[in-house]
């Protein structure tokens, strides 16, 4: 990936021309690291939350499930893409031995395998015994009592057996289709008095809990058995008259990188996405996971059928699919869970008489989720607009909206009452395509204007616009956020949202919607930074300004918070700023392709990652702009990470934070993040991360960590408000 980034930097003939970076000197390339290995490092930090005994037991199981889901997505997206590229290289070069991509796949495998061992060790030696101490017993079949086995057989007969479909492989039965991320039992069967192996597959139904609760002989205890074990030990009912020689539990992962060329109209986009969804079901298998000590014949048969090499096969210690443990992680056991958090209603919206439009009209206000209520702010904004007879139009962008979405219901209600409703639904939001297609059709049924995005770009910005007829004329109200309009993730992801009726800013939002729903080659924006129109250019210009301020002896500093850092031009800008002596604080939750602390390159760059109870999702950008007082600097929030795809291939928007009170809130967030020594990891010059450890001399913020600190600060504000 390093070579790939470097090639892009040179091929693009960078516009930045930042003088401190000499493109004829190849040493600056050392500041770049591999994107995919960086992502695996991030997921290792997620796994560490499961290993960390400072976290409650069920929360640790939750992190095992998150780690597993993350790794699944990595294989579907990145490994799938790299395998396709590897095959293309082989065809192009007509080589038999390893090619560069294949070598990279092997490198990643060597990183993944130790993490799988850590995961299994944590579950077996720490979490299962910890759960048992609290009377939650995850049992193997041979640990069941006779009474429990009898009840397990009965449960199988009534609830599992009818849902199973045994599929054989023989001349009359082709190899069965297997869906992505499906877990199956592969049985080795024989006809009595025969030595010929026969294969049969039974899918472990994902519509049933993967751990089945059984009655316990102790009143206050809960006992569970794996659904896969339940099927295995009742298999003779599935294959009467056959001899069962062996069975192996396995799981497959398919490539999700389906590329179909875009056409030139909205209806075609919908058709294209529907076709992508159909094709994705049949994409090649990129990973085969097998339980420990698999049957060699089944292993070989599956590898042959899926056309896999040894590098694609993982014999997984411990459980095969920890993502199936979400129900266990959700058990209501107070001492094994984080302290409950109920988001607080923002002060401006507290009280039954609060009118959200009057509040916005009296001055912009800022919300921070999940510390402050998403329902009482963002959801209420659209709900109130749908019910308000003065509202004449509602416009929204939808990237990920969820299943049971109040937003779409509000839009439907608004359209049914005659309001103009325009909704830009991004049909190509990865893994949400089917859900978004559904809601698009529902909105179209009631006459809403549904647009499917801009050809060649994903619409990732999170904006909503309400147009209202008031006594003094038309007034526009806008919400510009960093997170999706998704009620469930709003309780788990940290995000910021700005509500405003500032005419300049709302005019920008109007212009952006016009560009998205109509045709506009050069939309004009006064305050918004919009990708791919002006965002990268503006961020680079602000970086250059910090460099010039540093040279002039003025205060200079850059702080930004994103999910990922990869864009070559922004990385080069950071290098140039560091070489000029500008301090650059990068808060990057996921992977960073830029390395920090390299002499002569990124000496003045710090890269930290915050991992914990909530998923850090907000994007914040700060530039000192020559000001001694941080609150006199420039602040922006928005939807874009500093990745090439966000700045070049997506529609994104960032809004300025201009009120001093709001700047104080955002600076407080950044200050807490940078002082954290409980949840923070800091990158070393070699690209590895080191978890910070608080000491007794550290401040409360350092010892408590970001999420606990911000919860306490939010509660403190509530108490002050009540007084």
UniProtKB/TrEMBL annotation:
GO biological process: one example: polyphosphate biosynthetic process
GO molecular function annotations of the record: ATP binding; metal ion binding; polyphosphate kinase activity
Enzyme class, first EC level, given as a word: transferase
Record's GO cellular component terms: polyphosphate kinase complex
Residue ranges occupied by any Polyphosphate kinase middle domain in the UniProt entry: 148-326
EC number: 2.7.4.1
Catalytic reaction equation(s): [phosphate](n) + ATP = [phosphate](n+1) + ADP
Superkingdom in the source lineage: Bacteria
Protein residues bound to ATP: 70, 493, 589, 617
Active site: 460
UniProt: Mg(2+) binding residues: 400, 430
Role of this protein: Catalyzes the reversible transfer of the terminal phosphate of ATP to form a long-chain polyphosphate (polyP).
Family, as annotated: Belongs to the polyphosphate kinase 1 (PPK1) family.
This protein's name: Polyphosphate kinase
Organism expressing this protein natively: Blastopirellula marina
């Amino acid at each position: 990936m390093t070579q790939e980034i470097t090639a892009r930097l040179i091929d693009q003939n960078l516009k930045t021309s930042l003088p401190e970076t000499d493109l004829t000197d190849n040493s600056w390339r050392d500041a770049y690291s591999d994107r995919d290995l960086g992502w695996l490092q991030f997921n290792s930090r997620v796994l560490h939350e499961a290993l960390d005994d400072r976290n409650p037991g069920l929360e640790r199981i939750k992190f095992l499930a998150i780690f597993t889901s993350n790794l699944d997505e990595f294989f579907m997206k990145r490994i799938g893409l790299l395998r396709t590229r590897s095959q293309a290289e082989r065809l192009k070069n007509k080589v038999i031995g390893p090619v560069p991509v294949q070598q990279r796949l092997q490198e990643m495998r060597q990183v993944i395998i130790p993490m799988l061992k850590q995961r299994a060790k944590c579950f077996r030696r720490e979490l299962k015994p910890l759960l048992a101490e609290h009377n939650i017993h995850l049992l193997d079949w041979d640990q069941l009592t006779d009474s429990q086995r009898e009840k397990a057989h009965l449960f199988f007969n009534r609830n599992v057996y009818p849902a199973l479909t045994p599929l054989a492989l023989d001349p009359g039965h082709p190899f069965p289709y297997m869906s992505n991320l499906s877990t199956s039992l592969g049985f080795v069967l024989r006809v009595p008095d025969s030595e010929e192996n026969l294969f049969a597959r039974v899918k472990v139904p994902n519509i049933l809990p993967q751990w089945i609760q059984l009655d316990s002989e102790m009143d206050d205890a809960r006992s569970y058995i794996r659904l896969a074990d339940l099927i295995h030990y009742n298999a003779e009912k599935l294959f009467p008259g056959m001899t069962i020689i062996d069975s192996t539990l396995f799981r497959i992962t398919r490539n999700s990188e389906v590329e179909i060329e875009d056409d030139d109209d909205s209806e075609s986009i919908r058709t294209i996405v529907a076709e992508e969804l159909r094709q994705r079901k049949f994409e090649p298998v990129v990973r085969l996971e097998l339980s420990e000590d698999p049957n060699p014949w089944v292993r070989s048969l599956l590898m042959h059928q899926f056309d896999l090499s040894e590098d694609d096969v993982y014999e997984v210690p411990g459980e095969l699919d920890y993502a199936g443990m979400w129900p266990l992680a959700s058990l209501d056991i107070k001492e094994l869970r984080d302290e409950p958090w109920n988001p607080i209603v923002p002060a401006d919206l507290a009280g039954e008489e609060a009118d959200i439009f009057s509040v916005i009209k009296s001055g912009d206000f800022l919300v921070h989720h999940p510390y402050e209520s998403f329902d009482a702010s963002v959801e209420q904004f659209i709900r109130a607009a749908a019910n308000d007879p003065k509202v004449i139009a509602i416009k929204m962008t939808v990237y990920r909206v969820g299943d049971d979405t109040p937003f779409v219901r509000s839009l439907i209600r608004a359209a049914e009452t005659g309001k103009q409703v325009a909704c830009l639904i991004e049909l190509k939001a990865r893994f949400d395509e089917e859900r978004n297609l559904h809601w698009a059709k529902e909105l179209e049924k009631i006459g809403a204007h549904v647009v499917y995005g801009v050809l060649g770009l994903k619409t990732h910005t999170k904006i909503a616009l309400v147009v209202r007829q008031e006594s003094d004329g038309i007034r526009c109200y806008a919400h510009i956020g960093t997170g999706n309009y998704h009620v469930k993730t709003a309780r788990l992801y940290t995000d910021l949202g700005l509500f405003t009726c500032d005419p300049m800013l709302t005019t920008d939002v109007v212009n952006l919607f016009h560009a998205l729903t109509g045709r506009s080659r050069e939309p004009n924006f006064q305050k918004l930074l919009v990708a791919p129109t002006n965002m990268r250019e503006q961020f680079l210009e602000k970086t250059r300004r910090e460099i010039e301020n540093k040279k002039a002896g003025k205060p200079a500093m850059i702080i930004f918070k994103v999910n990922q850092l990869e864009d070559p031009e922004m990385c080069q800008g950071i290098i140039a700023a560091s070489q000029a002596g500008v301090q650059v604080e990068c808060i990057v939750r996921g992977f960073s392709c830029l390395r920090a602390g390299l002499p002569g390159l990124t000496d003045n760059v710090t890269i930290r990652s915050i991992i914990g109870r909530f998923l850090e999702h907000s994007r914040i950008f700060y530039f000192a702009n020559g000001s001694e007082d941080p609150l006199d600097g420039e602040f922006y929030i928005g939807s874009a990470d500093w990745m090439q795809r966000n700045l070049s291939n997506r529609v994104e928007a960032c809004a300025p934070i201009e009120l001093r009170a709001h700047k104080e809130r955002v600076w407080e967030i950044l200050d807490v993040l940078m002082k954290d020594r409980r949840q923070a990891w800091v990158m070393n010059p070699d690209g590895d991360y080191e978890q910070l450890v608080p000491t007794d001399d550290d401040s409360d913020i350092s010892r408590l960590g970001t999420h606990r600190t911000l919860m306490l600060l939010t509660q403190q504000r509530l108490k002050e408000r009540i007084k």
